[in-house]
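Action item from last week, closing it out:
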Amino acid sequence: MRLGCDPEVFLKKKNKLISSIGRIGGNKQFPFQVPDLPPGFTLQEDNVSLEFGIPPASTKEEFRESIFKIMKAGKQLTHLSYSPHSSAEFPPDQLEDPRSEIFGCEPDFNAWTRDVNPPIERFKPTLRSAGGHVHVETNLHKENVIRAMDLYLGVPAMLMDVEGDKRRLLYGKAGAFRPKPYGVEYRTLSNFWIFNPKHIDWIWDETERALDEVAEHGDDIISNLYSKEIVNCINNNDYHLATQLCERFDLHVA
């Protein structure tokens, strides 16, 4: 197994949120390669957030250290600090650039329905959210992997991510993913996990458990017996159901 990620963070100066636009220059098509780090350590402006990229990691330790390296580089290059929040309302003066209105340049998909997810419905013009997407290198069935990740990561994350309900107003529904040539990009989680080494290790461990589940059982147990519960738990912010599923499947809450 190899893992990568492209999490987003909000920049701030003291207590004010600051747009990333014009700070780095990198974008989706041409991310900024950090000069003093190996290829694959990149930064880019994504709407008003700063997005990180790391090379695929082959060990949990490498995964953790790569995230620390790119986050350190982001602070050094922007001369700003990071907000710990995964959703926030930005000051209007930080949303004046038209690029702050660009959302979701590529569609993503729902692994449970196999449909394209609809465009987000914005109800607050100043609200922005930050994702913590996980890239998984695997030859296993893509939808099955995402469904298993919903169980092993998406459900327990309900009890770990204190702001997840706010982000799910915009992004992060159950089964959200993009297929990739090397495997999948799991898009349900917010960025809550990148700030804590224990949570970063949890991402690695539970992704490994999800892949083992699919390799051994396919998606029989997950999609045939408990699909509605898993989807309802995540999409409806059902913390009571999350607790029940964690107990039933011995899911780990870091």
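Closing note: The chain has a mean pLDDT of 93.
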